Inverse folding.
């Protein structure tokens, strides 16, 4: 279901398609090569170290630190109505790196390189189709206000 | 069948009598804490509350006009505060005020639309705010076969009941991605106080229409609502369930 | 193995060329290069075209260009590595000649960009990052380089003013280059007041999309030595790749592909950074030029801002850079840029650069980056 990922999706076909289904359920997944143990985020099916394709998803905490950021003013087609928006690149606590929009819990003036953030799975609420993404929020922000797993 | 409703929290509007009371009792039997609202039925409401508390559940009643927009949010907040959570909304409160259109006053129209249709909007919306964030929830809106077919002298009632169906289907589309189910239960004639006050020929005409030759008891409706409020029904949404003994096929 | 020399150069006018299609643009540059090389174009035994196909309606560009230039039935093919396509074409031709398979090859870098709207170009160019994990968030090419700029500013104290001083320099020289898109000088005030594109990069930090073509003709040593003009030799080549995605780079303050490509090229040519008398670097954005000073070893890591502030990259400074206006003032017809850089270096080393001549330039360098640095080609040229 990778076509669910992102406001606009250019790559619906991928071996790690289930990532998007996990994200819709509020879980951020990296990958782990079952043969040699190499861990990756973003997740990848094929191991770049031992060339095995035997992988499993591994849940990430979403805790992260900010590497760099920019406020995009001139937007590409499909995003004109969203501009300006701020994207950040974060190092994830366990491994890997991620790029995402900043969410409402982080005021623009507080953004600074090195700050701690929480990556939170999100749904595009007003789109008719199911579309998921993740956003950068202040530490402690949770996906749902109650921790009910239905 | 184990419905798995133990510990869940529900709101039933118009839960002091008739179908609403039966639903409130049945949900409580299945394990729910239940909050009901009513208008000018304090004694009846208290009776339901006492029955539910006696089952070992939590319960409370609010006197309120369901067409009051802000009161809906207040009631949802009260439930979340007292029960710790909200899992199920059953919208049931409704009135009728019949008359052929050339004799129907503006007030007759406005009042029925306000209580039946706007009332459902008020509570569906207030619950959706919680369910969307919680990523779970069940909404059951009680409509009527008279919202699917037209009924003589009920331009206002049929419109409101049909409107509840449209509202529910649209809402099912909006809330699906948050794991929230929205369904409609559409009874035919049910033996409630509303029905008991009808002239005999109306009741007989209803029985004649009904292939099962009987009029529903409120519990008949309640069992279906309990099922739809449970995770056994997790794959059902945007559906309209006629429960009319075959009165309108 | 034979040494490879540049015997002919040609350069079309860069800009919004609604007067010509891509093969007509290629022809302008080619004819100039053939005349400059003083050869019969029938001596050319193959060509390599550097271009990025996605911007054109015409499919399979190499064939169209080859035919229009009158080079059928000689072998031809396309090389594409985003903005480094031109240099990739040069490296390919060099390999063709070094191997003995060819003796004289034409390299044509050509591009039409303005067949697409600005928003379409922004979207398409943004997809040079990781389409699967980044494009869904509306990333753009300027946004990627802005991430580098923020990081460089944070780590080394580089300022917006220093970034824009690069633009001021390149417009200064572009004003003196008849083939450039922008031929007016700008002031730092103009630049600081320009609109924001992706914080901190403003309009004046960014190169412009453009149409254009450039051509160089490479030849094996014995053919080259017959040339009456001084031959410029392609003596050092370096090439390296890096991760496409900024999510897999070691840091966001330099380009590892550039550092490695430079190391290879210097070693092969037997020179070091201080031997480079004039350079063309890939200033797709001002921050890219500042990082290039560091990656190429013209200054220490983190000191790129100071390098421009002290005017070390102007004529008279330590290492003049982008004396033809760079991508900033010339415009950046993607496939043509690497070849355009080469044309300028050859001119400089031959002593033909007129009022933009760097005195005594005998060793020059081109630094051509593809995308966000997933590809980099560094070439070192020498005039004997």
């Amino acid at each position: 279901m990778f076509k669910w990922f992102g406001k606009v999706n250019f790559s619906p076909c991928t071996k790690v398609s289930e990532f998007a289904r996990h994200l819709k359920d509020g879980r951020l997944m990296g990958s782990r090569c079952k043969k040699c143990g190499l861990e990756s985020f973003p997740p990848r099916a094929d191991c770049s170290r031992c060339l095995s394709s035997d992988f499993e998803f591994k849940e990430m905490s979403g805790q992260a630190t900010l590497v760099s950021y920019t406020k995009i003013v001139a937007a590409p087609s499909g995003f004109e109505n969203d501009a300006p928006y701020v994207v950040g690149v974060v190092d994830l606590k366990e491994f890997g790196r991620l790029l995402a929009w900043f969410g409402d819990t982080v005021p623009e003036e507080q953004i600074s390189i090195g700050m701690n953030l929480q990556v939170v799975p999100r749904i595009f609420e007003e789109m008719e189709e199911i579309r998921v993404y993740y956003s950068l929020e202040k530490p402690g922000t949770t996906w749902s206000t109650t921790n009910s797993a239905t | 069948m184990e419905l798995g409703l133990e510990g869940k929290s529900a709101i039933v509007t118009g839960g002091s009598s008739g179908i609403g009371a039966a639903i409130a009792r049945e949900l409580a039997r299945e394990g729910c804490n239940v909050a009901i609202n009513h208008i000018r039925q304090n004694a009846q409401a208290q009776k339901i509350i006492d029955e539910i508390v006696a089952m070992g559940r939590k319960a409370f009643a609010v006197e309120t006009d369901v067409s009051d927009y802000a009161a809906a949010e207040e009631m949802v907040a009260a439930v979340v505060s007292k029960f710790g959570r909200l899992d199920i909304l059953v919208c049931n409160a409704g009135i009728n005020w019949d008359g052929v259109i050339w004799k129907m006053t503006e007030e007759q129209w406005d009042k029925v639309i306000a209580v039946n249709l706007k009332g459902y909007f008020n509570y569906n919306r207030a619950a959706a705010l919680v369910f969307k964030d919680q990523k779970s929830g069940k909404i059951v809106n009680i409509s009527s076969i008279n919202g699917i077919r037209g009924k003589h002298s009920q331009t206002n009632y049929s419109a409101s009941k049909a409107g509840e169906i449209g509202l529910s289907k649209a809402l099912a589309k909006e809330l699906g991605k948050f794991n929230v189910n929205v369904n409609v239960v559409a009874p035919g004639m049910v033996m409630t106080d509303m029905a008991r006050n009808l002239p005999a020929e109306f009741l007989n005409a209803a029985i004649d229409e009904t292939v099962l030759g009987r009029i529903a008891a409120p519990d008949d409706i309640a069992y279906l609502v309990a099922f739809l409020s449970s995770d056994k029904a997790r794959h059902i949404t945007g559906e309209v369930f006629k429960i009319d003994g075959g009165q309108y096929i | 193995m034979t040494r490879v020399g540049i015997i002919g150069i040609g350069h079309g006018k860069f800009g919004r060329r609604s007067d010509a299609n891509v093969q007509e643009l290629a022809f302008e540059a080619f004819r100039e290069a053939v005349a400059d090389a003083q050869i019969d174009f029938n001596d050319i035994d193959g060509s390599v075209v550097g271009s990025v196909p996605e911007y054109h309606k015409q499919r399979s560009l190499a064939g169209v260009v080859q035919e229009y230039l009158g080079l059928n039935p000689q072998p031809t093919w396309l090389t594409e590595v985003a903005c480094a396509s031109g240099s990739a074409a040069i490296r390919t031709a060099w390999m063709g000649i070094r191997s003995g398979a060819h003796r004289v090859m034409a390299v044509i870098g050509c591009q039409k960009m303005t067949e697409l709207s600005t928003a379409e170009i922004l979207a398409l160019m943004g997809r040079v990052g990781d389409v699967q994990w980044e494009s869904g968030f509306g990333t753009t090419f300027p946004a990627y380089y802005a991430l580098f700029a923020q990081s460089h500013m944070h780590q080394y104290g580089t300022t917006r003013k220093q970034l824009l001083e690069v633009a001021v320099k390149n417009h200064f020289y572009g004003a003196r280059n008849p083939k450039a898109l922008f031929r007016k000088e700008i002031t730092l005030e103009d630049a600081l007041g320009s609109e924001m594109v992706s914080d901190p990069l403003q309009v004046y930090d960014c190169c412009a999309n453009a149409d254009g073509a450039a051509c160089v003709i490479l030849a094996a040593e014995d053919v080259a030595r017959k040339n009456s003009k001084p031959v410029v030799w392609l003596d050092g080549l370096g090439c390296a790749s890096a991760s496409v995605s900024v999510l897999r780079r070691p840091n966001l303050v330099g380009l590892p592909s550039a550092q490695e490509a430079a190391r290879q090229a210097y070693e092969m040519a037997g020179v070091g950074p201080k031997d480079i008398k004039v350079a063309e670097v890939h200033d797709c954005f001002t921050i890219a030029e500042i990082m290039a000073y560091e990656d190429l070893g013209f200054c220490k890591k983190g000191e790129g801002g100071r390098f421009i502030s002290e005017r070390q990259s102007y004529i008279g400074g330590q290492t003049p850079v982008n004396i033809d206006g760079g991508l900033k003032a010339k415009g950046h017809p993607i496939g043509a840029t690497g070849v355009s850089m080469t044309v300028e270096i050859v001119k400089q080393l031959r002593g033909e650069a007129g009022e933009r001549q760097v005195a005594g330039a005998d060793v020059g360098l081109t630094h051509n980056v593809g995308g966000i640095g997933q590809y980099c080609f560094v070439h070192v040229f020498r005039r004997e």
Remarks:
- Chain A has a mean pLDDT of 91.
- Chain A has one domain: 2-137.
- Strands of chain A lie at 29-33, 39-40, 55-59, 63-72, 85-92, 97-102, 116-123, 132-137.
